[in-house]
Amino acid sequence: MPFDSNPSDLTPWDPATRAAGEPPPEEVPAPREWALIRYVGHPIGELIPLPAGGLTIGRSQENLLWLDEPEVSRHHARLEAAPGGEAVELHDLGSTNGLFLNGRKVEASREPAILRHGDVLRVGGHAFKLKRLDAVERQYHEAVVAQTTVDPLTGVNNRATLLHQLEKHYDLARRHRRPLSLILADLDHFKRINDIHGHAAGDQVLRMFGGLLLGRLRGSDQVGRLGGEEFVVVLPETTAAMALSLAEELRRNLERESIDVQGRPLRPTCSLGVAELMPGDPDGGALLARADAALYRAKAGGRNRCATAP
Amino acid sequence: MNPKDARKPAASASETGPVYPEMPTVVRLRAEGDAPADLTGWALVAYAGAALGRIFPLAPGETLIGRAPNVTVALMDSEVSRTHARLNLEIDPGGSRLWLEDLGSTNGTRVNGETLRAVVELQAGDRIGIGGHVLKLVAMDALERAFHETLLDLSTRDPLTGLANRGNALTEFQNRFGLSLRYDRPLSVVVCDLDNFKRINDVHGHGVGDFVLQSFGDRVRANLREADLAGRIGGEEFLMVLPETDLGGGRQFAERLRKAVAATPVMLPTGPLEVTCSLGVAERLGTDQEPGQLLARADTALYLAKSGGRNRVCVHALQG
Fold first, then answer.
1. Is the CB of A137 less than 8 angstroms away from the CB of B47?
2. Is the ipTM above a cut-off of 0.85?
3. CB-side exposure of A88: number of CA atoms within 13 Å?
4. In whole angstroms, what separates CA A279 from the centre of its chain?
5. Is 0.80 surpassed by the pTM of this model?
């Protein structure tokens, strides 16, 4: 039966919904913190807070707002709250070529430009709106970004976001000649779980597996759901040998888990394919394809196992 | 502008994105900071609550906020009264003004946290609190509009097929089930599954599988009426919700879609690929209290269509 009579997600996922009886959310505008909201570019809606020490913008990676655009200088500009906190100063760090404020090109100057709430900064293919946020605004922006980047069932990144992150890490690893590995994990016999135990049980397995992957992440690792029962973990600074031992750990962790289906334990397993970036890989997709080939071998070898791409 | 037209309510923002009413050029509410030069109109954006992210463009004249289905700003929230509050956007050559009035609601209306005692004039950036919802009055220029529309699109649409995504399809189904129950109007659902899809993926690769799904999405859209809703609710599973449609009408729709899919193979570089689908149809019965009950019957019918040999339509005609 593909459905139970009460699919668990008939109620929309909504992090901003409060439980009944809770006091209403803060509605009195009480602006506290400055932030840039990405209005054009990926990920759209992203909230970039302006820290106390200021926010540097540039093409070089050490900038807090890193924009990989040809018209942007390596160290381009710095945003900093003005004394008193009522405005933000834009300091020129050399070239302001390609930086537009409210549609006007910012000219190089020793004096900082003064920005206010609602001002729009354009750099290359990106546009940011400067906002002074309070709790409601912050929650709103965080929730809409989550709605567009997170898989609502499992809480891991959705397909589009994951593929975007993969290409970004591919570029970084290439440019700096650093290792990058990828794990492609697929739940074994998932269609059978859905067919025999129903979609609710299948969803429960997906949620549990997503949680297990999220729980094992290091800071810069990315995990996403590629579709159906396929998950990807992107591992910067990681060799194939390290990725394989992590894959093996994930496999064993899942093996130990069980979910309760009408009083009976269901013990799902998964197969995992591991691949490390090679000089011949033209893009992140090529790395994914080699992990897919490894996954195929893990499946063909009897499932509930890991395999590495040659 | 004809004053009669000015009072026409804006269309619902649920499926195709918000439809902006034609705005006169003189709209001068006080904005946060300076009003944008290319201001095109005003909208309420749901900043908190179940409608989070929804945009409600404001037309000149009256706009009702409430839980009733026929209001422009419909909020599915038990703390919201059926017709809860009224907005009035006055357009005149000297500038525009927007007024808000509570319509004797049970739980009251708040503006920036303060309970409304009388009719109040609103300013851009004001927050209207109704039940668990917070609606912010936003000045819509081209950038603001594109931003909110893109976000809404990304969170409600399946990027591959362009149909509603699972979350949006199930939420909309729930809403339409509620309407059908309350007003005792017919409602049918069709659950559809592409036949042997896993085999297509395995034999031809995921790229071809994705292309098949896209083509199927196009066929569904071509056969849909204005009020119908179609969404992708799983890998190769789709849900169609047909308001004002009985079981016979639902079966006709499903049969038309089945024929359209079976009659036109998907064209691959290697040649045509035959694709078929199985469909289950069910109509809301008087005994249905939950949308899940209706869905489960459509699903049973789909199961029969699959086990009966695929490429067919089955209807669930039995009581509960």
1. yes
2. no
3. 29
4. 26
5. no
